[in-house]
Amino acid sequence: MPTLIASRPLALLLLLLQPLQFKILRVGLDKSEEEIEQFEDYLEELHSSGPAKPLTKEAFQRCTIIDPERPLIDPDYCTDEMKMKNVHDKFRCVREHFFLQIAYEDLQKICKNLFVPCKNGVKKCHRSRQLVEGVYCNLTRGARMSDCEYESSYRKGHVLITCRWQDDIQEIIPAYVNDIMVLHTDVKGNSLLHNEAQWPF
């Protein structure tokens, strides 16, 4: 009976060559030390078995803030943008995601607003005072990149976000978009939020 090593020589060879390949890649990259270090951290996180690290300020901007040129009502918006912006959880499809059409600086200011309940009822979200346009992405098919397909829903309402402290830049930053609370109107035409009593300004 062949041993495991003898039956899988290519896999073993690739494992042994990984550090060497990365050293060659490091030399060939025309990047700053900081960019190379970020890339190494990214690779390390991809191959780790623990939970994903929270997004940095730059990563959150890249994955969440969207270009105003593309129509937000495009039915393929999410499927295309999730691939273009490389949004995934260690190459697994994320179940839901929000893209927002807002300046990052305006989104960051929301972190100073009072706590309100998130959509799961836990009071740890901050809500925007102004209306924000965005797209809600809901996974409809696929398990791993790039087979993920999403349903895209245009939304306009008050955005709910969670925030966290980022040590290296000494700032409170947006960490996660929890929801966009869509406005509804009552029979008199007054604007109401879904479950408005739970959402004080």
UniProtKB/TrEMBL annotation:
GO terms for biological process: defense response to Gram-positive bacterium. It is found in: Secreted. CDD domains: RNase_A (cd00163). Residues 53-170 form the Ribonuclease A-domain domain. Coiled coil: none annotated. Does not exhibit any ribonuclease activity. Belongs to the pancreatic ribonuclease family. This is Inactive ribonuclease-like protein 9. The lineage of its organism: Eukaryota, Metazoa, Chordata, Craniata, Vertebrata.
